[in-house]
Amino acid sequence: MTKEKTYPINTFSERIDAVLFMMNIKKVRFYADLELSKQTVTQWKKGSMPAADKLLKISDYLDVHPKWLLYGKINDKQIYDIDSAKSQVTRIYNTLKKDFNCFPDQPNFLMPLQNCVTEVQLSKWALGMQIPTINQLKEIAEKLGKSILYIINGTDVAKEQSRFETTSIQTYYCLDEKNQKAVDETIIAFYAKQLYDREHKQDPDKYLTESDPYDDKSSTFEAGLD
C-alpha cells in the first residue's frame, strides 16, 4: 500500500512535493534529474510558475497532467466530471473486491492486474492527477473480464455488445502520443456525456443535488486509497 500521509496541494510547489512523496522520489534526485536550480525552486515556492517547456518536462517526469500541476484539477465542471477518473478507479476496485475477493489492505491485491497498472497509477487517477488512456482502460477491462464501457462510464453491457465500440476505439491508435492523449480524453468525455444525457433524461433533478467531485474545498490529499 502507498504510505499514509497527508500532504497539502494548494500550490504548484506543494503539488510537486506531494507526487514526489507518492512516488518515493527524493527531492534532490528530482532537482538533479531536471537540472533545476535552488533559485528556481525557491521562486516556485513563492508562487511563480515555470515556463511551458519546463512544465511539460516536470509533468512527464512525475507522470501527472500538466493542468493538474498548474491548477490542482484537470477538467472544468460539466461533462467529464459526471464520470471522473475517480469513478473509474472505484469501479476497478469494486470489481476486484466482488469478482476476485481482493481488498486494498491485502498484500498483492492488484495481482489480477499484474503488469497492467500499479497502485500509484490508480491513486493518481483517483486523486485527479492524471487521466487514464483508453488503451490503459481497455487492458484493465480485459483482465477484469469487463466491458470497457463499464470501466469508462458504468454501462453494464456484455463484452459482445461492446465489441463494436472497442474496435472503433482501437482504430484511433495511429497517432503520436500527445495527439493520442487528446483523442482518448475526447472519447471518454463523449461516453460520459452519453451517460449524463441518459440519466438526466430519466431523472432531471439528479444532478441538481449531487456534489461536484472537482469542487472539493479540501486542500490536502491522503496518500493511499480506501
Structure characterization notes:
The structure is a single chain. With 226 residues, the chain is mostly helical. Helix content is 54%, strand content 3%. The protein is built from twelve helices and two strands. It has a two-stranded antiparallel sheet with strand order 1-2. Helix 6 packs across helix 7. The longest helix is centred in the last third of the chain and has 26 residues. It is globular, with a radius of gyration of 18 Å. The termini are close together. About 14% of the residues have low confidence.
Present the secondary structure layout.
Layout: E1 6-8, H1 12-22, H2 27-33, H3 38-45, H4 52-62, H5 66-71, H6 85-100, H7 119-126, H8 134-144, H9 148-153, H10 163-170, H11 177-202, H12 206-209, E2 220-222
Antiparallel strand pairs: 1-2
Helix pairs in contact: 6-7
Largest sheet: 2 strands, antiparallel
In helices, the fraction of residues equals 40-55%
Average pLDDT, to the nearest integer?
Answer: 76
First and last CA, distance: 10 Å
Total count of helical runs of at least 4 residues: 12
Radius of gyration: 18 Å
* Order of neighbouring strands in the sheet with most strands: 1-2
Secondary-structure element sequence?
EHHHHHHHHHHHHE
Low-confidence stretches: 77-83, 159-173, 209-218
* Alpha-beta content class: mainly alpha
CA-based shape: globular
